[in-house]
Write a structure and sequence with these properties.
Number of helices: 4
Bound molecules: zinc ion
Strand order of the largest sheet: 1-2
Radius of gyration: 19 Å
Structural class: mainly alpha
Length: 133
């Protein structure tokens, strides 16, 4: 199978006919074939590991490790360095009280990184199981 029409972020390819269908679809609307669900168990453990990495390591100052685990190394490094820059800014400005503003920024970035790594894995799982390569 060569080029299909581009897949939207919330779509996957039907395991049978290759039609782009909603990622959450259990049955292909075009050919009526039930979509395989075997991979969800594997993806769940990947999802849990990446979520834990993003949550725990992100909390202690290593944001982005979850992203690297999920395969998005570029964004992982950006998050890791971004988190460190925030820490440095925090420590250099906390004596002036204004450093406090980096705390909510860091917490927001940390929470976002957890959600983001989960969406990366959810999207990747549907891409990885398409047979259109
Ligand atoms: Zn189909």
């Amino acid at each position: 199978m060569a080029s299909k029409k581009p897949r939207a972020a919330d779509e996957k390819f039907c395991s049978d006919c290759g039609e782009a269908i909603a990622a959450k679809a259990e049955i292909c609307p075009k050919c009526g074939v039930r979509q395989p669900t075997i991979e969800t168990d594997f993806d769940k453990s990947t999802l849990q590991t990446a979520t834990l990495l993003a949550a725990i390591l992100g909390f202690i100052g290593f944001m982005g490790v979850g992203h690297m685990y999920a395969g998005n190394v570029g964004r992982g490094i950006a998050l890791l360095l971004g988190g460190w820059v925030l820490w440095i800014l925090f420590f250099f400005t906390i004596v002036l009280i204004v450093g406090i503003i980096f705390v909510p920024i860091g917490v927001a970035l940390w929470i976002w990184s957890i959600y983001d790594v989960r969406s990366i894995i959810k999207n990747r799982s549907t891409v990885g199981h398409s047979h259109d390569t």
